[in-house]
């Protein structure tokens, strides 16, 4: 699964990467330990252009009776997207990208769990594939939420965990976002493990395990626990 990640680039870098002209995010700040049920930066396409705003992480289907279900839908398995009622109709209509520059996963070793941060070797921003939906409560208030799509681990991740977020290639970003693209079989082909040789993983502090911690030193390399 993918349950924590980082997005530490500036707003200017985000807008330049996704060709964004305007954003609805008023108070942007780097996230060193983004966690489920938080509002996170996300990119959608409105049919004409890309838009950058915030979605709450943890998908609440439009037909859900209450929004608490979101905490159980932080990830969507690519292999079963078309089988799940919460996701299957979103593939053709409500795709999004969650920008990131790293994600965390916990590696079992010596009877302990060692937190690892996984990034691109280049250190660049990357795009995690997601789906979003809009839920409305009884009073008419809208809640926009998202889920991060996962796939099987590549050879780098296999030593850490059996799942990883779907990271879209630079070329696939526009194809995934394009709202006019409803070719589901072609879209599903984009949901594959990213090239392991372009990624790296390194140990970080156990402090990342606490969602209340969100300072920049969390991304610093740490000594692996010896057990």
TrEMBL record:
Entry annotated with the keyword Lyase: yes
Superkingdom as given in the UniProt entry: Bacteria
Pfam families: SRAP (PF02586)
Record's keyword terms, sorted: Covalent protein-DNA linkage, DNA damage, DNA-binding, Hydrolase, Lyase, Protease
Protein family (similarity comment): Belongs to the SOS response-associated peptidase family.
Any one Gene Ontology molecular-function term assigned to this protein's record: lyase activity
InterPro entries named among the record's database cross-references: SRAP, SRAP-like
UniProt-listed GO biological process terms: protein-DNA covalent cross-linking repair; proteolysis
Gene3D superfamilies cross-referenced by the UniProt entry: SOS response associated peptidase-like
Enzyme class: hydrolase
Protein name: Abasic site processing protein
């Amino acid at each position: 699964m993918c349950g924590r990640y980082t997005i530490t680039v500036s707003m200017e870098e985000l807008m330049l990467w996704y060709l964004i002209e305007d954003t609805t995010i008023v108070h942007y700040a780097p996230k060193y330990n983004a966690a489920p049920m938080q509002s996170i930066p996300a990119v959608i396409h409105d049919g004409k252009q890309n838009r950058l705003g915030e979605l709450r992480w943890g998908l609440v289907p439009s037909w859900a009776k209450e929004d608490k279900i979101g905490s159980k839908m932080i990830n969507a398995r690519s292999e079963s997207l078309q089988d799940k009622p919460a996701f299957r109709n979103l593939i053709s209509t409500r795709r999004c990208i969650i920008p990131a520059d790293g994600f965390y996963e916990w590696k079992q070793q010596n009877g302990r769990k060692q937190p690892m941060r996984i990034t691109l070797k280049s250190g660049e921003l990357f795009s995690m594939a997601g789906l979003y939906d809009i839920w409305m409560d009884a009073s008419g208030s809208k809640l926009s939420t998202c889920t991060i799509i996962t796939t099987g681990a590549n050879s780098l991740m296999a030593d850490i965990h059996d799942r990883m977020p779907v990271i879209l290639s630079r070329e696939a970003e526009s194809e995934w976002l394009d709202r006019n693209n409803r070719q589901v079989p072609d879209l599903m082909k984009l949901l594959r493990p990213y090239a392991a040789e372009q990624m790296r993983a390194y140990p970080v502090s156990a402090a990342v395990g606490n969602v209340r911690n969100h300072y920049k030193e969390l991304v610093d390399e740490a000594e692996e626990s010896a057990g």
